[in-house]
């Protein structure tokens, strides 16, 4: 999906440089760049590691980047590293990725998302991060609503959202009076739903048509 979406706006090398070789991770605030490199060097050749720091105090914010030489190495790191790192592909630098992804993690991913990992407060090295961030504001659930100006094809939409692990069902609904598309997506965990919303809200499918992805109430307590 990343490759197909990005090739229209630049060369393949640009895609590799900006979107497919750099990963974004949540780390203990005690980590140095050398610690970060040591933890992730087993997955491939690292070009550089960097830790996001408070510009005033110089202290780590508990977030970092690892840049690999090959997209396959970055993909392997995301798949195989400990889930507590919450590893994802980083946004390109020209999209103000530091502020965008820091907001994403501080608002969404530090919670104990059911079926994913232990809460950070049960892992001593992450306690400082848990205590200093504000609690999640946006209600989340395992269920998503997907809206489009164009009608959906069931098999294609299922295949798109199935790229995120844990898809339970994809229900495409048709309105005979309009040409718009509407579907309900449900994942096995809230973690998967959050990741799917983060990556696919605004995604162009088909090209030129942006998807709108929002959370739907699923009857569970979102404060969990």
TrEMBL record:
Instruction: Please give the Pfam families that the UniProt record associates with this protein.
Output: RRM_1
InterPro entries, alphabetically? Nucleotide-bd_a/b_plait_sf, RBD_domain_sf, RBM45_RRM2, RBM45_RRM3, RRM_dom
**Which is one GO molecular function term here?**
RNA binding
Which SMART domains does the annotation name? Answer: RRM (SM00360)
Alphabetical keyword list: Repeat, RNA-binding
Keyword check for Transmembrane helix, yes or no: no
Residues covered by the RRM domain: 21-95
Q: Does the keyword Transport apply?
A: no
This chain's protein is named: RBM45 protein
């Amino acid at each position: 999906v990343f490759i197909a979406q990005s090739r229209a706006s630049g060369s393949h090398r640009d895609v590799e440089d900006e979107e497919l070789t750099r990963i974004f991770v949540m780390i203990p605030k005690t980590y140095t760049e050398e610690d970060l490199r040591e933890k992730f060097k087993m997955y491939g050749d690292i070009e550089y590691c960097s830790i996001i720091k408070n510009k005033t105090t110089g202290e780590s914010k508990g977030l970092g980047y690892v840049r690999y030489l090959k997209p396959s190495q970055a993909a392997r790191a995301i798949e195989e590293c400990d889930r507590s790192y919450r590893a994802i592909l980083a946004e390109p630098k020209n999209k103000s990725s530091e502020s965008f992804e820091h907001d994403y993690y501080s608002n969404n991913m530090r919670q104990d998302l059911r079926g994913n990992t232990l809460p950070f407060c049960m892992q001593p090295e992450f306690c400082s991060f848990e205590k200093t961030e504000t609690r999640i504001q946006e209600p989340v659930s395992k269920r998503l609503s997907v809206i489009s100006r164009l009608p959906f094809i069931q098999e294609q939409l299922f295949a798109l959202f199935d790229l995120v692990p844990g898809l339970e069902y994809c229900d495409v609904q048709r309105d005979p009076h309009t040409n718009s598309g509407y579907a309900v997506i449900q994942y096995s965990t809230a973690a998967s739903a959050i990741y799917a919303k983060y990556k696919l809200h605004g995604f162009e499918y088909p090209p030129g048509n942006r998807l709108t992805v929002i959370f739907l109430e699923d009857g569970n307590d979102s404060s969990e």
